[in-house]
UniProtKB/TrEMBL annotation:
Protein name per its UniProtKB record: Uncharacterized protein
NCBIfam families in alphabetical order: TIGR01244 family sulfur transferase
Keyword Flavoprotein tagged: yes
Any Gene Ontology biological process: sulfide oxidation, using sulfide:quinone oxidoreductase
Residue intervals of the FAD/NAD(P)-binding domain: 150-269
GO MF annotations, alphabetized: FAD binding; hydrolase activity; quinone binding; sulfide:quinone oxidoreductase activity
UniProt organism field: Nitrobacter hamburgensis (strain DSM 10229 / NCIMB 13809 / X14)
Length: 554
């Protein structure tokens, strides 16, 4: 935690954690302002978690999230009013402190000399040059002036973004490419299910962002707040402007924990966990190991979600542990799915049902988790059916694995790039934007109706790279995406049903059935998941080596 002082009343910092509240109290702070919206990163604590920790230390806490793309004058006015009324000194934070510093400068712009504001921000380590431009331009960013320009700009440094940059650089090594991402850490998220089962160590799923950004690509360590596609411009936090000739949008999706009432207050305790967050996956394993009897609940929200098989994978691996330890007969396993089927591709359901029967798991379809009471160990679901009104179902639990509702990030949903559902609106074959022909999208955030998995991004990255090169006249034929996605369904420790499919549920196996039959649980698929896929991810996919992922060129 690195606190920077702006004035006697206010200091700012990057993201703080619940355990930091004791030190902040000891340092003399009396109130906390959170300017970071929930769900920006997989390892980010929620505002409610932080508020609870602040309250325990008798610190006042105010949640004033700056909506992505909308750091408006009204945001600054609200910030100024809040700061005026709070006990001081106060600490404001966001992801890096830049948002909070920008708000402070804007809130005080009419009462303090501009050089004093910029000097205080600079002394704290924040460049507010973009604020000067914004004030001089009546509060609107002049997008015709750029802080930097690139041949290709990639928004998002996750699996999709890094792989796309590497594939693009391999085809056009002289291209001036930039990746925009504020994170310091790059995660191998497909490994978190295995962390939650005690198979992988959490540390093995982490690399620094600097280590995975391709050599020759500029990393802009900042958050995107808005797009101006008619001006070929991306607006960054702090009001900086980056121009592009071609744009690739792949920031992933948002885990919307707050959509389940009471969830954020109890995550990581009271038997409430989720493999969808880096810091919680080890807690899943802790709960599984310690449970000897009682009720274990696993939930799945409405689609789309990241890796549609992950909710039931957590159930299978947990139940397998209890089965092997002789505890399963004393544990009631329940799977509560907002949807109406176990898995969206029917060919794989028979194999999965064999394990549902083996573990005596109770399947509860059309049950959507809407609220949770951690201390009372109660979950509440809305149950729907075609012929009856919706009803609320109360379920007691000893442990519960929650898959959070998911959606596109706020700055995507409010942008001109989004379709009516909030996803980046692309042609499902070319992955090119339907309106802006110099923009492409891939990964979880694009509107293509494929499974949102890392395996899908591995196939999509070379296709987008190829099609950008076609647009640059470096290639002649368009590459086409067939919707490929893969979901290694870990049904027990040592066996996996390797689901591989494309648009419309068409089966797209990578191996002949005599080598690996994807419709059946096999040890070969487990070996692939445990031993082969992680190094392929780090050393092939992210490096632009397109093993078994060469694009289909037509």
């Amino acid at each position: 935690m690195d606190v920077k002082k702006l004035s006697d009343e206010l200091s700012v910092s990057a993201q703080i954690m619940p355990h930091d509240m004791a030190a902040l109290k000891q340092a003399g702070f009396r109130s906390i302002i959170c300017n970071r919206p929930d769900g920006e990163a997989a390892d980010q604590p929620t505002a409610r978690e932080l508020e609870a920790a602040a309250s325990a230390r008798e610190l006042e806490f105010v949640y004033l999230p700056v909506v992505s793309g909308k750091m408006s004058d009204s945001d600054a006015v609200k910030f100024g009013q809040i700061l005026k009324n709070l006990p001081k000194p106060a600490l404001a934070f966001c992801r890096t402190g830049t948002r909070s510093t920008s708000l402070w400068c804007l809130a005080n712009a009419s009462t303090q000399p501009l050089p004093a504001l910029l000097g205080a921000a600079k002394a704290a380590g924040y460049d507010m040059s973009g604020i000067v431009r914004r004030i001089a331009n009546g509060g609107k960013t002049p997008v015709h002036l750029a802080d930097a320009s690139y041949d290709a700009v990639i928004v998002g440094g996750g699996a999709a973004g890094i792989a796309c940059a590497s594939s693009l650089l391999a085809r056009a090594p002289n291209l001036n490419i930039a990746i925009i991402d504020p994170a310091d850490i790059h995660y191998y998220q497909p490994g978190w299910t295995m962390v939650g089962a005690g198979v992988f160590d959490a540390a093995s799923t982490v690399h620094t962002m600097a280590s995975v950004v391709p050599s020759g690509v500029t990393w802009i360590k900042a958050a995107v707040t808005a797009f101006e596609p008619t001006e070929n411009a991306v607006i960054l936090e702090g009001c900086r402007v980056v121009k592009y000739s071609r744009l690739v949008v792949c920031p992933g999706l948002k885990l919307d924990w707050s959509k389940v009432d009471g969830l954020t207050e109890t995550l990581g305790r009271n038997g409430v966990t989720s493999n969808y967050r880096f810091d919680l996956a080890p807690y899943t394993w802790e709960l599984v190991r310690s449970l000897k009897s009682g009720k274990a609940v696993f939930t799945q929200p409405p689609m789309p979600i990241k890796c549609a098989g992950a909710p039931q994978k957590a159930m299978y691996l947990s139940a397998d542990h209890w089965y092997r330890r002789g505890h399963l007969r004393n544990i009631d396993v329940g799977f509560y799915n907002a949807g109406s089927v176990l898995f969206g591709v029917a060919d794989y359901v028979p194999a999965l049902m064999e394990y549902v029967k083996k573990y005596d798991a109770k399947l509860n379809f059309q049950h959507n988790l809407v609220a949770i009471d951690g201390p009372e160990r109660k979950a509440y679901f809305t149950k729907t059916s075609p012929d009856r009104p919706a009803e609320t179902v109360e379920v007691q639990f000893d442990m519960i694995h929650v898959t959070p509702p998911q959606c596109a990030p706020d700055f995507i949903r409010v942008s001109a790039l989004a379709d009516v559902s909030g996803w980046v609106d692309v042609d499902q074959g070319s992955l090119r934007h339907k309106t802006y022909d110099n923009i492409w999208s891939l990964g979880d955030v694009c509107s293509a109706p494929n499974a949102k998995t890392a395996a899908a991004a591995r196939k999509q990255a070379p296709i987008v790279a190829e099609n950008i090169c076609v647009d640059l006249r470096l290639r002649a034929k368009q590459a086409v995406y067939d919707g490929y996605g893969s979901c290694p369904l870990t049904v027990e420790r040592g066996k996996i049903v390797l689901a591989e499919f494309g648009y419309g549920g068409k089966l797209l196996p990578s191996f002949p059935a005599f080598i690996l039959n994807g419709k059946k649980p096999t040890r070969a698929a487990w070996w692939l998941k445990q031993r082969v896929l992680p190094p392929i991810y780090w050393h092939a996919m992210l490096k632009g080596k397109e093993w078994m992922a060469a694009p289909d060129v037509r």
